[in-house]
Amino acid sequence: MTTIAPGATAPSRPRASVGPTFLTHTLILTGRQLRAAWRMPAFLVMNLIQPIIWLLLFGQLFKAVVQIPGFGNGQSYLEFLTPGIVMMMALFGSAWSGTVFIQDMQRGVMDRFLTSPTNRASLIVATLLYQSILAICQSLVVVGIAFWAGARFEGGFTGILLLLLGVVLLTAVFCSLSNAVALLARDQTALIGISQIITLPLMFLSSAIMNTKLSPEWVQNVAAFNPFEWAVIVGRQALSANPDWAALWGHVGLLAALTVVMAAWATSAFRVYQRSA
Questions:
Q1: Reduced 3-state DSSP string for 98-159
Q2: pTM, 2 dp
């Protein structure tokens, strides 16, 4: 038995090693989802087929609409359409992101995460990061195809970066929304139904495929409060020759603020799921 001399201090116990940080957990969980996507490349290709069809088909069918007085500023319809298609792809992809959570619930993976030291915030942030990476890669493909088809974007490299910023913010907003719905509804059919109810009206109540200046006044009024329209404005201004910087950064700010709100809601929904699990 070890004795301690009078006046001496007891040796301190070694501290437990600090576990993986939030950043480490986020990277690990993001890598998990990226590996799953890499094993199914056909799924990634299928997600690109519809946007490319819309881009090439609509770009030819409606190319004469730019001749309507008040429609545009000398752009071809393909150049007008490309930012809208990019944002549509980000919208639809992120609106379905909650299916990952539902699949984890059904397979018991979510319960294992909750009983492990996994950082809870990392579970949400990893999904946002994963969806953003996919959206950026797919957006670059669509922009490249549009360039190959004849579109020319005066915004240059800086414009592409700002377009991708809009893509990431839009993805974060609707990925958070999808995750929150998945955690509260816990049913894939409900998630699909709610996603369709939300995304389709948002798409048509915007300038993604048609300039809202030619739409009824009520459509213009609704579009002003449409987060999807905010992202389309960011992308279109970013790629234009003479961007309206006030409009661009103003809508970036709106998307960033909404991202914070939706991420907070997703976190709150996660706590609700934890308490009921």
A1: CHHHHHHHHHCHHHHHHCCCCCHHHHHHHHHHHHHHHHHHHHHHHHHHHHHCCCCCCCHHHH
A2: 0.86
